[in-house]
């Protein structure tokens, strides 16, 4: 998966759970977009599986979670893996 | 394994098929668990009457499609799943009523379904009732919580009510983790780093016996309207918060504020489902729990707290492969599994009320009843698709103080409203200012000594002071005091100078105190035995100028060395015969005395008390007591303790008298009682420990009309003990601090108080105020824990020459004026009574747990034989241990120590059970009469108090060995002296153990009884006791109950009478076989003629439940060795058809049954071998004669050997399946059974007589018992072919049927 594919994959995970997101919302806090905690956990868990990473919780939740930040954290995770 | 068996075995749900929450619910229902109770949910729904037709069909469809709805929980927690066909027997109970009767019937149904006594009828754990009339219909559903989670309930209700219900696609068992990689190792690491550091749950006002609160629950439901909920959700999103997290934070913040604003932990229930609604055949409960820390609230804004809560929740939920129980185990590996560590629970759910209404039903949320075991307070937030939010609160009614939870719910609603209404509240938590404190009285301008001198003028001849020298009248006292004042002035004393009163107990102390005040000086009362080093410190810090001493040279030299001028009490020139002459008062100094108290650093602090402060307290107490000239106070406390201020001035301000002890009588309770009687003492004033000594002395003191107790926890048993000495006396609790002029709060103790959590601290004395303030020094709302602060006219001026400590402890409050921060914790109740929640020195942390020593002591004090107690924590770090010391009554029960451990173990969390309970002659007290905990900590301990030199189970105890075998099977290691839980067992393991003991050995021990002494020896003892109560030599039990048995099996005991040999076989049997086992634990006839085998068989049949011999369904009798003969004989005489008798290596021919008349030696050798082979116990021959248990077992053996030998089997046309041992079979003649019965098959098992139930053999015996194709009639058995599996076995011999 290329770097550009990551946000697409992230958005797909949300779409599959009933939360369509456009690229223009990549920097918007997902919770302010109406994503609830159950969905967020499911997506994060799925992304860990898809990319074979473990999110660094301290870092991930130190700021609002956005698609762009997820992309960064995934890149960081795959580099460490 | 045969096909039949496979199907049958699959019909029992294995324990590991349960989700964590299902397991938790099942465990929590077991008696003996803390807060055990049913795990049940009730919901009622308004129903469209048009939906009533078809309800039954739709229910059956659901039951057929979902195995979980067909699970019938057996007594031993095994979970047989009924076949799909069982759904046909399921139905909705339809109650058709006239419209006029609808409400009454409907209410009755609801009350039945929600009653504490409700029980499912057997079979599946759900019940559906529909009440319907012409116009109306209502649905009532009650089910065991482990059946369905909230998502499943949504689907269930929709599909029950309507055929139109569309559902999701997720099948049963789908969880988030199941589809991904195994996260358990990672998650374990995550929780290992966090679990142990989780704080305790919030400290709420729980009743003292909350751990054993009854099943009664209360439900409240609030609805947040859609507009308010939307406003709140909107602001939440601006802060990056989900609405669910906001409600969780509201709940957490309120709990935290109640508990004093400190961090705390609650339990969050959440779902492991993949997200989609479950399919129609995917119902189940996939919930799990996690502990969640709520941060401290002090100084925090709501949004900040909620952000932290949300971050923690998300991070933890992403590590959700561990269950709450597993996390608890990580937090505290030795923790007590009887309890949920965090009993305040939260869950957020969604609902779609509009869709449900469209389908034809509407839930009646206000009538929901949620019964969750091991939870004290459960809060559910249900977010409806229509935008409204329902807030459910369910709590154990008996666990909380009356009115508390209702108040909490009100606060919750208020906070939600405030957060929705204003963004400001997100930055700073809203605070409701309580009503201002009432105005205070004033005593300004008066002094203690002026008031005493006024009394002296009024009643010069009245007795003022009694001591061992006699009685001093008021005039005499005034004259002596005036002489002291003169002496001081002559020595150069000026108003305000500090004068130490360092005299032995007696009148001299009173004279010196009063004289110092008359001279305008400030007195410093000092215990006569105070160490020299401390005197040095006091002299320096107090700037002492003069000291009245007893004249001993070393005392005078000591004071002189400190730069203090020693003085001796002068004799007055003349004893006046009338009122004292008026003397001009020196310049008034506001300070009356300085009392030095212990400082935490070891450096004493001098508390400066003004006349006004002292008078405020003393007047208030005197008014409360109605103290007058006829009253007399015994001054039992040291003068260095500020209770002495009241002892002296309390009576002297009102014309009463004080009785001063001597140094000799100061520690002699008998002398106190004597003085009380001699002088007619009416008021007792001391710390509780000294009053306990008086109570223990036991001498009646009927003149005492009030016992005033203060300075320490009052044991709940003490008031009653004191009333036994003086039946008319009242007991008054007083509290406060030296810094608040002796006392600031009082409470008349009632009998009801003594049954409560603790004696209430009470309400403020007139002129003073008690404030409970939060960390920001705002008045706490009712129920909230805060710091107790003293305000009003009793507050001290500060610490002498210590501005730093004074500034830290004495605060100028913008509303309450000058206040003293006590450092004590408390909460105010709605009636204004303040509850004291402990000083820091009695609340200790032990291995991370908050331990209140007072709670341990209260329990010990109530035990028979215990007079008093004191607990302390000894050691440091991980070697810290809790030790309790007790004083014993004259003739304590010999078992007092064991009783104490048992009682403490039953009532307290394991970490609060003392590691040792040690008897002392007396509890050491400080000079102030308080328990000297420092001294307790340094007392030598006897060698390991709990050590038990004997092994866990004596080698010669067959029952103990059998139980040890069960223990080993559960925990994987043999029992030691440690308890079951210390050895790593969980509550589930304990239930397994008891299930094994029941199923294998036939001993029914309740979980609760086991908890009292969860050791192998304790369990063995319980088993003996339980069996002993039955009183019959023959007993039966039912290790496996089948709901709809396909076959009933009765197993008869071998020659030893024990039945543990059948455990493996029973485990192999399919779940739909109803198993009964008979056994002997004593000879049937202890005297008279020997009992025959037929008589024994008849006895066994008599003990069986009636349904076994009802002829309802096929019946199989079986037995090993002697048990096979018994089975045959029982089948012959039982009067109902027996499908088969399975005899396992059983002798039947005369030659094999008897070997002549065996002597005692041979019998004993056979018995010992039997014991060794069946239970593993290596019994010593000599023990059989001396050990009553062994002796009885031997008598059973002897009885059965004799009965077998004397047996003359009468041929009967019974189908017998014979199994023979491959090596040295018990029946040497292979054709012997064929001559007495119709052999339906014969097979040879591998090994010898004691190997017949090895797993490979047991499976063959099982197949012979089960032989399902032969069930319809024995005619079908032609030789052995009828018994599946046997034909594959080597050595089979075909027998012809007769």
From TrEMBL, chain A:
Full protein name: Carrier domain-containing protein
Organism superkingdom: Bacteria
Keywords: Phosphopantetheine, Phosphoprotein
Pfam family, one: PP-binding
Source species: Streptomyces diastatochromogenes
Keyword Phosphoprotein: yes
Heme as UniProt keyword: no
Listed InterPro entries: ACP-like_sf (IPR036736), PP-bd_ACP (IPR009081), Ppantetheine_attach_site (IPR006162)
Carrier domain boundaries: 1-78
PROSITE patterns membership: CARRIER, PHOSPHOPANTETHEINE
From TrEMBL, chain B:
Annotated Thioesterase domain residues: 1048-1267
Domain Carrier: 961-1021
InterPro entries in the cross-refs: AA_adenyl_dom, AB_hydrolase_fold, ACP-like_sf, AMP-bd_C, AMP-bd_C_sf, AMP-binding_CS, AMP-dep_synth/lig_dom, ANL_N_sf
Domain (AMP-dependent synthetase/ligase) ranges: 454-799
UniProt pathway annotation: Siderophore biosynthesis
Protein name as it appears in the record: Carrier domain-containing protein
SUPFAM superfamilies reported for this sequence: Acetyl-CoA synthetase-like (SSF56801), ACP-like (SSF47336), alpha/beta-Hydrolases (SSF53474), CoA-dependent acyltransferases (SSF52777)
Domain (Condensation) ranges: 59-420
GO molecular function: ligase activity; phosphopantetheine binding
Organism: Streptomyces diastatochromogenes
Domain annotation AMP-binding enzyme C-terminal: ranges: 855-930
Alphabetized UniProt keyword annotations: Ligase
Source domain of life: Bacteria
PROSITE patterns: AMP_BINDING
Recorded GO CC terms: cytoplasm
Cofactor needs: pantetheine 4'-phosphate
Annotated stretches, region: Disordered: 934-955
Keyword Nuclease: no
UniProt xrefs under PANTHER family: NONRIBOSOMAL PEPTIDE SYNTHETASE, PYOCHELIN SYNTHASE PCHF
Gene Ontology biological process terms from the UniProt entry: amino acid activation for nonribosomal peptide biosynthetic process; lipid biosynthetic process; secondary metabolite biosynthetic process
